[in-house]
Write a structure and sequence with these properties.
- This protein has 412 residues and is mainly α.
- Helices cover 67% and strands 4% of the residues.
- Strands 4-3-5 form a three-stranded antiparallel β-sheet. Strands 1-2 form a two-stranded antiparallel sheet.
- Helix 7 runs antiparallel to helix 12.
């Protein structure tokens, strides 16, 4: 028995060190590929299945197995209720269309939570269909025969589809909402904070923003439903901070700044999955080129542009634009330079006190948002050090592994 266990451990370790650098990296919503499927380790697989009597794990496994059916049933109930019961249209319409129309634009408020829930259900269903009915079959047609690799190819391809869609969409919105009179990088940074509080948004921006919130809430849930990774707490912290910033910037009418940060952060989440897909297709030269592009894009977007936005909060906010004071959410004009020190009641005014018609900007809110952004940057710095270690291993010609995943992947 001991000999069999040692042999199994050696086999798993040998498989582990054959993975390329990009195959083991997990950043943001992109998880590492080499530690999420315990099927390669027989004893671990036995322990995994023996844990099904644990109620939370069992519930999560059951949900993952039946997620498509559950989501389709929920969507059908809502749609049928909307069309069959006219008196309930006002209560159910918010689950699949924007609320608070103001002519051709939209306001924000508590009903927006319904659309977030609707998008969570929609993303869960479409992800299951795309992964299992389309991308796994595509993997087989492309010559990827190993079931485990088919799953990983499908997951990374789905991320490429999702982030390409949202990065392109977000970039288009940002460019469209940027005045042609804005010239120079510093003026572009100042424009992120100009016009506070923004009063209304068009349907495209509203759907983009609420669906992004829904996606990240779903990612938080999936961290608990799927196999727990070694860096679970780090990923959880990143997802929670990202979600809080998204919800806070949406509620506080900082849509342009939030749009800019999303575009800045989403680019690398296209490139890393692409490198992984090329790895599974055995296109090693293309994979290496894409990985180099990923590293360059990471540095530019995550550590230069992102920090420039943080610097702008210190330099331009309150000094050049967006002065402290009390503003009208009906006209956007400053009512008084006086302000209170409340944080939550002001940030979440459309949800906690929508009838007040006023919102205050103060130093506490300014430094809270900056602190959350810098916390997010600290996480990306930690990830970059791990990326750098992988780069050094590749340059030395050593087997490239993700240091966060070694302990999990090895059979115990």
């Amino acid at each position: 028995m001991t000999h069999h266990r040692d042999k199994t451990r050696q086999t798993c370790n040998a498989q582990h060190y054959r993975y390329a650098a990009v195959d083991g990296l997990s950043v943001c919503a992109i998880q590492a590929d080499n530690d999420d499927h315990p099927t390669e380790c027989p004893e671990w697989q036995q322990n995994y299945h023996s844990n099904r009597e644990n109620p939370p794990q069992s519930l999560g496994a059951e949900f993952l197995e039946h997620q498509l059916g559950l989501c389709v049933n929920v969507m059908m109930v809502v749609l049928l209720t909307y069309y069959l019961f006219p008196d309930l249209k006002d209560k159910t319409g918010g689950f699949f269309m924007p609320s608070y129309p103001r002519g051709s634009l939209y306001d924000i408020g508590p009903q927006d939570l319904k659309l977030v829930i609707g998008f969570i259900v929609f993303f869960t269903a479409t992800r299951d269909v795309i992964l299992n009915s389309i991308l796994k079959n595509l993997a087989a047609r492309l010559g990827i025969m190993k079931p485990r690799n088919q799953v990983q190819f499908a997951e990374q391809s789905y991320m490429i589809i999702h982030y390409t869609t949202y990065w392109s969409w977000g970039l288009g919105l940002f460019m469209r909402n940027t005045s042609t009179e804005v010239g120079g990088f510093e003026n572009l940074l100042i424009s992120l904070w100009s016009g506070f509080p923004l009063l209304y948004m068009d349907a495209s921006l509203k759907i983009y923003y609420l669906s992004q919130i829904a996606f990240w809430l779903q990612q938080v849930a999936m961290l608990h439903l799927e196999h727990r990774r070694k860096d679970h707490l780090q990923m959880l912290l990143h997802h929670i901070v990202t979600t809080v910033l998204l919800v806070g910037s949406y509620s506080y009418r900082q849509w342009r700044a939030g749009n800019a940060i999303l575009v800045c952060m989403d680019l690398v989440d296209i490139i890393l999955p692409l490198a992984k897909v090329l790895h599974y297709l055995s296109l090693q030269r293309s994979r290496d080129i894409v990985f180099a592009v990923f590293v360059a894009a990471w540095i530019i977007t995550r550590h230069i542009i992102f920090l420039a936005i943080c610097w702008s909060i210190c330099k331009h906010v309150h000094g050049t634009t967006m002065a402290y004071g009390t503003y009208s959410t009906n006209t956007g004009a400053m009512i008084s330079p006086e302000n209170n020190n409340d944080i939550l009641i002001n940030i979440f005014q459309p949800f906690l006190d929508p009838s007040s018609g006023i919102v205050t900007f103060n130093a506490n809110i300014r430094w809270l948002f900056l602190g959350l952004l810098l916390l997010l940057h600290c996480i990306t710095v930690a990830w970059f050090f791990m990326i750098f270690r992988v780069i050094m291993r590749v340059l030395r010609g050593e087997g490239a592994t993700d240091t966060r995943s070694e302990d999990e992947h090895n059979c115990q």
